TrEMBL record, chain A:
Job of this protein: NDH-1 shuttles electrons from NADH, via FMN and iron-sulfur (Fe-S) centers, to quinones in the respiratory chain. The immediate electron acceptor for the enzyme in this species is believed to be ubiquinone. Couples the redox reaction to proton translocation (for every two electrons transferred, four hydrogen ions are translocated across the cytoplasmic membrane), and thus conserves the redox energy in a proton gradient. This subunit may bind ubiquinone.
Keywords: Cell membrane, Membrane, NAD, Quinone, Translocase, Transmembrane, Transmembrane helix, Ubiquinone
One of the record's GO cellular component terms: plasma membrane
Enzyme Commission number: 7.1.1.-
Protein name: NADH-quinone oxidoreductase subunit H
UniProtKB/TrEMBL annotation, chain B:
Domain 4Fe-4S ferredoxin-type: 42-71, 91-120
Species: Streptomyces fumanus
InterPro entries: 4Fe4S_Fe-S-bd (IPR017896), 4Fe4S_Fe_S_CS (IPR017900), NADH_quinone_OxRdtase_chainI (IPR010226)
Binding site for [4Fe-4S] cluster 1: C51, C54, C57, C110
Protein's UniProt name: NADH-quinone oxidoreductase subunit I
Name of the encoding gene: nuoI2
Automatic annotation (TrEMBL), chain C:
Lineage: Bacteria, Bacillati, Actinomycetota, Actinomycetes, Kitasatosporales
Top-level lineage group: Bacteria
Subcellular location: Cell membrane
Keyword Transmembrane helix among record annotations: yes
Span list, region Disordered: 192-268
Membrane topology value: Multi-pass membrane protein
EC number: 7.1.1.-
Biased composition (Low complexity): 200-220
Biased composition range(s): Basic and acidic residues: 221-232
Function text: NDH-1 shuttles electrons from NADH, via FMN and iron-sulfur (Fe-S) centers, to quinones in the respiratory chain. Couples the redox reaction to proton translocation (for every two electrons transferred, four hydrogen ions are translocated across the cytoplasmic membrane), and thus conserves the redox energy in a proton gradient.
Matching PANTHER family: NADH-UBIQUINONE OXIDOREDUCTASE CHAIN 6
Name of protein: NADH-quinone oxidoreductase subunit J
Keyword set, alphabetical order: Cell membrane, Membrane, NAD, Quinone, Transmembrane, Transmembrane helix
Organism for this UniProt entry: Streptomyces fumanus
Reaction equations catalysed: a quinone + NADH + 5 H(+)(in) = a quinol + NAD(+) + 4 H(+)(out)
Amino acid sequence: MNDVLDVTLRLLIVFVVFLAFPLVVGQTEHKVMAHMQGRLGPMYAGGFHGWAQLVADGVKFAQKEDVVPAGADRRIFQLAPAVALLPYLLVLVAIPIGPGEGAVGQAVDAGIFFVLAVMGVGVLGSLMAGWASANKFSLLGGLRTAAQLLAYELPMLLAAASVAMAAGTVSLPGILDAFEWWWLPWQIVGAIVFFVAGLAELQRPPFDMPVADSEIIFGAYTEYTGLRFALFLLAEYAGIVVLCGLTTVLFLGGWHGPWGADGLGWVWTLLKTAVLAFIVIWLRVTYPRLREDQLQKLSWTLLVPLALAQIALTGIVKVVIS
Amino acid sequence: MAPVPGSGLAKGLAVTLRTMTKKTVTEQYPDVQPDLPPRTRGVIGLFEENCTVCMLCARECPDWCIYIDSHKETIPAATPGGRERSRNVLDRFAIDFSLCMYCGICIEVCPFDALFWSPEFEYAETDIRDLTHERDKLREWMWTVPAPPALDPGAEEPKELTTARRTAEKLTPHTEPQTTGPQATEPRPAKPQVTDAQATRPEVTEPHATEQARAAEQPTRPLGDSKQQTDQPRPDREGDA
Amino acid sequence: MTLSATAGRLAAEVTTSAAAETHGFLSPTGVEISFVLVGLVTFGAALVTVTTRQLVHAALWLVVTLGGLAVEYLLLTAEFIAWVQVLIYVGSVVVLLLFGLMLTRAPIGRSPDADSGNRWAALTVAVVSAAALVWVVVDAFRTTWIDLDGPAAGATAVTGASLFQNWVLPFEALSVLLLAALVGAIVLSRKTTPGTTADPSTGKAPTAGAPAKPGPAKSRPAAEPESARARTGEVGPAEPEPAEARPAKAGTGEPRPTAPRTDEGGVR
């Protein structure tokens, strides 16, 4: 029974994190983006600097009518938000936050493959939404989503493979156990490739062609309203949390830090994740959207060669030091 | 061109980061009232004591949004055997702010300084008919008209002051001309436009005041008779009749 | 161990823990029960995949099928294979499939032409190949049982070791096969022909761009169709380019002969 209790408790914690962290990131995005544009951002909801803005948004979304277009494929249309959201919940289970067995929802043996595979599944939600909406803009958004995923899955995998080579394991806690500080400069190219490809996979600006509002309204989510739309948005922000957490674990040493190694490891993980989330927001504010062909070009002609070069470098260094 | 590839990207990041650390430009409007500059065009106030119903404002208005009604009154001769004089009495003065485009031409053309800009801007209404401000309301706006901003040091004296002083000097050569200065630049224009003349020629303005008081007491022509009036006032808003 | 495996293990603990020794057809453990159930679901999804008349639904049922297979791998402790299955098949192959469907035709609702006329032949082939596979597997392993409670037989380290020790040659052969496919794809997608010097990255047929360049200033009505014909004649008939060049010529070259004439008429 203790086993069951343990599993339940872990899942509960992961679930709470899954619900809370995206909101924190979203609120941070509200405020950081506003200040980067010389604005104040939300100031009223909740009283103090609009801290409850996203809660208010959630209430608003919950009150809205759930509309399914007449020509839509009803069942798939309704299923799509869940398919988009749940994978990120699953990924969160496998991300270690601190040293040891106790600080991870579930230690997965083939952790890297698990997280990348499940994250790839999340894109199916967008595809389903895009197709089932019976809307040409949605379909175009779905197409762009698919093209983007196909282009950026490869560099992401290659960059992750580089870390796995360096650590000699594909388990996320195992990678963290093997981490040394000099991996940071060693794997920096891979880290950048991974992060950029992850941004593209999340369809975050400047890689948000699938939801480019000036071209195709809101891409695959055009026809969605109410709670299902909110779920898609939640999936996006959960994706940010997952991507930043993964980059932290794979490339930035997770719970390793200059001091406070025992007991305070989770603080380091959260801190690094937060900094990365800030960078995600920063990039969104700073850069305009890429064009669809520029996006493909960036992946195939820059990221993939860089990732391959990183793998080669990793292999050479690995052979030299062993 | 670009010396280092990617330097443009870094520059962009620097711009946003710098902006983030700077003070925001957002006005917290309903909580904090805006600090409006002088001569802000908020609403037009009517200083009706100055109005002579010359109709210049109504005629110059590009939007035809000023409605003026008046009638003539005969003033008995001031001295026995003198000629009777007639003067215009204002019955209605209304500005339809749903038509007004805030060009300020009426204020510019008014030869008697009866119209003023007020910086008040919070007079939105839920009924568009309420945007037609009648005489009383326009008169109320006068209390919100700020003092004109001080002249630049070394600026030329305003034309009005010069002419007023000349007139004063001509009429009363023995009084010291300096008194007009401070009086003319008296901060509140609610009264001052009259004071210029009043101070120097009290014997002229005194009858005017009594006439105006008498005109106010007397029942005037009911509203809505005028042919030029296009906007019929609603019965419940005839308070200024 | 993953969540599903944990759940399976928890269920297994209730009944018995010694699956390896006391196994048998009539004393199923929790893992075996879930294996069979997931297998049935997978089988059902596979059936729906090939029988449904809605194309995109077929692709989505394929996701269920492949995911079910991944769960089966998990239940057999082959974690690495399971996640690779999800990564490659669900994450990439099905997405590519959906991409292709959406790009070409993906109507909502049934497509009546989705059925092939030779479905019985297809069914026969399917049944025969399934029977062959089942026979091979059953014959190869017979009553060999995977010890689910010991060290995971399908863990990443074990899989890697056996892959690069026992199965290196097939692995490399497969790599070469994939490489050949990759090179073939690149060769097929390149449009350059000996006669023309087009930038392959732009993806534009040179003949489509060339007639537009001369412009109305120097183009003589009589010379234009001739040069266009000469250019298409240059290209070999087997190349994919003429197919694209001809409509391009029809689009850009056709109106040109008339345009200068009206121009000249206007001058005179």
